[in-house]
Amino acid sequence: MVLLGVQISCELTNLTNLSPSCDDFRWYLKVKCGNCGEDTHDYVYIDGLEKTPIQDSRGDANLVIRCKFCKRVSNADIIPGSILPYSLDDSGHFKTIAKFDCRGLEFTEFSPRSGWSASSVNSDAVFDDISLTDEVKQ
């Protein structure tokens, strides 16, 4: 078992508690095979509410993927309770916002996309379905 985390760093202005807005948030990631090192060219997503049976196993996982090069099946699960908000105090620093139990794969890139929520520092307002797509620097 390998535990991998997704970390973000951003500057929050008048906002706090940036986090996925719902349980079925899709974590878009690029994946590298732990066996042969082949990278996925496109993003795959992990949804905390979706479970897929693992081939030749009695278990299931949030992501089950077969390497196109070596054909090995790998999987990843979101660790329950590991999704944390990014607060105003974290602003400008890297923080792990989610952890994954990965078997036979590793993550190489994260794309935040849409589906985030944040709270106003100055009022009780909550902003839902925030898109971070335009703010990604790579």
From TrEMBL:
Tell me the InterPro entries matching this sequence: CXXC_Zn-binding_euk (IPR008584)
Q: Which UniProt keywords apply?
A: Metal-binding, Zinc
A Pfam family name for this chain? Answer: CXXC_Zn-b_euk
Tell me yes or no: is Metal-binding among this UniProt entry's keywords: yes
Q: Which domain of life is it from?
A: Eukaryota
Gene Ontology terms, MF aspect: zinc ion binding
The answer to keyword Repeat applying to this record is: no
User: Which PANTHER family does this chain map to?
Assistant: CXXC MOTIF CONTAINING ZINC BINDING PROTEIN (PTHR12857:SF0)
Q: Which family does it belong to?
A: Belongs to the UPF0587 family.
Q: What protein name does the entry list?
A: UPF0587 protein
Annotated source species:
Schistosoma mansoni (Blood fluke)
Taxonomic lineage is: Eukaryota, Metazoa, Spiralia, Lophotrochozoa, Platyhelminthes
